[in-house]
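Write out the 3D structure for:
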Amino acid sequence: MDTQTIALLIAGGGALGVLVWILAKLGRALVTIAEALATAAVVFLVAWLILKAVLWAWRQTLTHWRTSLTVLSALA
């Protein structure tokens, strides 16, 4: 091997090392962003489901008011 080939291999290896390092940093950043987005999605989904449940219960209470009063008086 001549010196030019050795220098090319050293430079290529260094460039490959830098590229892998950059990709690792980018991957960590993307994982952090994805985790934050997933957490926000779960929080909004739970809030949406709770709101739907409360509205459903309210509608049922208004629609079946006699049954609701009977249950309340039985609980009291």
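The first helix runs from residue 3 to 63.
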